[in-house]
């Protein structure tokens, strides 16, 4: 790939990434559960984020999160008026299925006072709820079939009292929020991203943080950049993926593939132009086929390296169940992502975007072969 080709591909990918979020807000802000074709199990409570809750905040994110020492450096800066370190991880909800005992639940953990301060008036409700137990997002509560005052059942005969249910936006799209000290019992400790309230101009704060965390690949997010204020390269929060494409159980949080019942109901193997036989989620494979047919019509079929597609895991593959860090589920686990080598031509990125697939080359941790379905007009 030439330097010019790489630059064009990266610029195109960044534009695609932002456009994908805009379309997501406009097309997916209604009731969840509707897949790409408008069908799916209805799960209420998902809407475009109430970004006003974060209007004065700067979100700072870096691949791998932040150490306690790094959090301290930012906290002690004179340009920081307030800071909340948001820790993230996965809880093992009990599935009740023999052999497939756990359901991964995306969870965040915060210091109650710090997060409440960061989110202002909308977050004050958390100040009374978090010390009493687990707070669920509306989508998380629907997925777990539990209400405020009920019990969140975890693997190993453990339970968490559900002290409240709040809008998805307030939890950044996470399914569950825990108070920091409680989260430690479940291994949720490392800060994934920082919510920072500036003292003075926000541009000065960005410059200061880059100096304090020199050498880190940093991303700064402000309200309006995304429909959910959260860190990470993932395009759709796990709760949104589950609501649209189904929730599956695993043998454990560290191993195995989705339970056969989910796979049978949602994964299909079929042929699409250029790629031939693929195994993908039934609600996404149509868009993938249209994208490949579109490339073929444009005479761009040579841009697709079919051999690399198969070597990289294609669409769904059990060996791609987790990302490289082993910390969270890859979107390949749902069969809604594909691995395609770009080959230095941004026309492949553009065509995939037109059929709903955002490109991973624009992520903070760039993945030039990753295309993930987010919705029409990505």
Largest sheet entry:
9 strands, mixed
Low-confidence parts lasting 5 or more residues at pLDDT below 50? 6-49
**How many angstroms does the end-to-end distance come to?**
24 Å
Which structural class fits the helix and strand makeup? alpha+beta
Please compute the radius of gyration using only Cα atoms.
21 Å
The backbone outline, from C-alpha atoms, is globular
Q: Indicate the proportion of strand residues.
A: 15-25%
**SS elements, strand count:** 14
What's the tally of helices?
12
Describe the structure.
By secondary structure, the protein is of the alpha+beta class. The protein folds into two domains: 3-41 and 253-373, Muramoyl-pentapeptide Carboxypeptidase, domain 2 (2-Layer Sandwich), CATH 3.30.1380; 51-221, no CATH class. Helices cover 30% and strands 24% of the residues. It has helices at residues 3-28, 68-75, 112-119, 124-129, 138-144, 180-184, 202-212, 238-245, 260-266, 285-297, 306-311, 346-354, and strands at 58-66, 80-97, 100-110, 134-137, 151-154, 158-166, 176-179, 191-198, 219-221, 267-272, 276-281, 337-339, 357-359, 370-373. Strands 5-6-4-7-3-2-8-1-9 form a nine-stranded mixed β-sheet, with helices on both faces. It has a three-stranded antiparallel β-sheet with strand order 12-14-13. The chain is globular.
